[in-house]
Amino acid sequence: MKPSSFNYHAPTRVEEATALLAEHGDGAKVLAGGQSLVPMLSLRLASFEHLVDLNKVEGLSAIERVNGHLRVGAIVRQAVAEHSADVAASVPLLSKALPHIGHFQIRNRGTVGGSIAHADPASELPAVALALDATIEAAGPGGTRKIAAADFFVSTWQTALADDEILSAVEFPVWGPGSGFAVEELTRRHGDFALAGAVVGVQVSGDTVTKATIGLFGVGPTPLRASAAEAALLSGADAAEAGKVAASHISPVDDIHASGAYRTQVTAVIVRRAIEAALKEARS
Amino acid sequence: MSDEVVVKLNVNGRDHKVLVEPRKLLSDVLREDLHLTGTHVGCEHGACGACTVMVDGAAVRACLLFAVQVDGSKVVTVEGVTPTDGTLNPFQQAMQDCHGLQCGFCTPGFVVSMTSYLDDNPNPTDDDLKIALSGNLCRCTGYRGIINAARTAAGLPVPANAADGSDH
């Protein structure tokens, strides 16, 4: 099928983009990499009178270290971040999550910011942002504001962004030495959305886990933090126990891809595997 | 209907100027306006990879881009990956040698994807190749001939029992 007609806007400044959004309200949609939006338009699951393309907006494609964070501009391509030595060194969890997104042809076009703003609960980057307590920078007609990832993901495909705001950057905290990270997910085919997935970060001092974060995706209306499992890990629980705790706090729904019960069972396993891999890396 | 816009593209080394609606996909502009019908349209929502082209050197789905978005870009389609002396490029030749196609519908997407991938990754592992091929669907071959073609083009060994795809 073909997308319905729309007016195409290609602003070159953030202020122009947000002014267009303010003018057209919910009749306008932001277009970044388009790897989720264009299929939705083509399948006529969505239509908009105006598309505001961010690809020509200046100042949105930098990867830089700022105040102990890695700041990734909204339209940094997933492939660019995936192959960035800076990303690998400072936010390994992001590096590890990126290859799980679609296929290399998709990541050549898809953006880090677009994936997070799209807020698909089965996608990897929203879970990474949530697990790492990333900060989302939103630009609107009145300037910019910072939104904690914990407050950003409202529901499936819904975020705390207002109609006249764009996601302009994401700031990921940089962890210190002694840390390890892992991403585990179960998909039917390579590149598919996950039936269930987990992202884990741990920091250790000797045999003690001093910092732990666990993000889940594909098992709820938003990415989820497995807070109880994090607490268990910090209290000395092993990976298998923490996996069971994580699974006991979710209630994924049945759909055509998998039952909720199956997703719950899978979650216990992949959380265990991700913790084991992250601990191994942290202790190496 | 929204107004038509002028889009300038350099496709396979030739400059073109087309007048199209903003909603027109790059895949449709290539086929309908430029008559480059080697780019095939399968699923039209980014799942099958048949429409893969290179835009400014990167392999992308032409059905997930509006032509207006790539105004001013250099596009290479399957018609543009063949050497000018009329021979086939290494992956194309390997596809022929390894029987990597049957009906041929998916072939342009595989050829553009792997031509681009092997240009950027000249020394892949066997697993790298399988992952790189995962973005293109083929409904005829069972993939064995295609994987062997990728191995051949990358200079990797082809397992003896997989030479002609008859082992499955």
Would you mind describing this structure in some detail?
The complex is a heterodimer of chains A (284) and B (168). Chain A has three domains: 47 residues, Uridine Diphospho-n-acetylenolpyruvylglucosamine Reductase, domain 2, CATH 3.30.43.10; 111 residues, Uridine Diphospho-n-acetylenolpyruvylglucosamine Reductase, domain 3 (2-Layer Sandwich); 104 residues, CO dehydrogenase flavoprotein, C-terminal domain (Enolase-like, domain 1). Chain A is built from twelve helices and 14 strands. Chain A has a five-stranded antiparallel β-sheet with strand order 4-5-10-6-7. A four-stranded antiparallel β-sheet of chain A has the order 11-12-13-14. With 168 residues, chain B is α+β, with helices and mostly antiparallel strands. In chain B, 29% of the residues lie in helices and 15% in strands. Chain B contains five helices and five strands. In chain B, helix 2 packs across helix 5. The C terminus of chain B is likely disordered. At the A-B interface, helix 2 and helix 6 of A face strand 4 of B.
Describe, in short, the structure shown.
Chain A has 284 residues and is of the alpha+beta class. Chain A is built from 12 helices and 14 strands.
